[in-house]
Amino acid sequence: MHRRARMLGALLAATLFFSLLGAAVAAAQPPRAAVSHGAAATQTVQVSVSDVFAFTLSTNEITPGDSVTVTITDLGTTAHTFTLSPIANFAFNSSDSTTHLLQFFAVHPPLVNLSVNGTPGETYSQTFTAPAYGEYEYVCLEPGHFNAGMFGFLGSGEPGTGSTVATGPGWQVFAIVGGVASLVILTIVLAFVFGQREGTKHEMPPERLGYPEGPRPPADGEAPTPPQQHG
Ligand SMILES: [Cu+2]
Hints:
alpha+beta, Immunoglobulin-like, 2 domains, 5-stranded mixed beta sheet, 4-stranded mixed beta sheet, 3 helices, binds copper (II) ion
């Protein structure tokens, strides 16, 4: 029994290990360094939105002058926009209405304005030239979303503040791989445990067969002592 408990413990530890592996590998992904030589450097910023009032970005920093392609992906069924202000170091008032924001952008055309309409998996892209040093606010222009907290800052030449940044471009993939590995190991563990239980049903204790009980196995032992044959 102790040996089984130890094996079970080891397998559960392995399950935990693989669960954490996904997160660890994702965390180990180095942030994509901005290529700063020449004027034609390109960068990508992946933005994901879902059914909550929040943006998740692949990075919160771009390099002034770079050609930046922003891609928005809707992971949920809610319509959103990713609308990037062209004014450096300017923040909307948290009480500003969506109408106020629309009026602002009518006067100051956004650097990026992408919309998703709530179809899971839909993706759109727009390329722009990263502006001068500073922080640029991005907001969602769906009514009420900004006031619900759907905004953040993309930094040009510096990290933006108030951004939710995913650790590495493929972190979802690593999380899925870790999850699948955990399920496989959990299945093996359960099969092992129930297999052992099933096995005990077919073991008839020696005393029930009329044989004298054999010598007790060592306290730590697993293997049953085979009944001794008489006659
Ligand atoms: Cu929104």
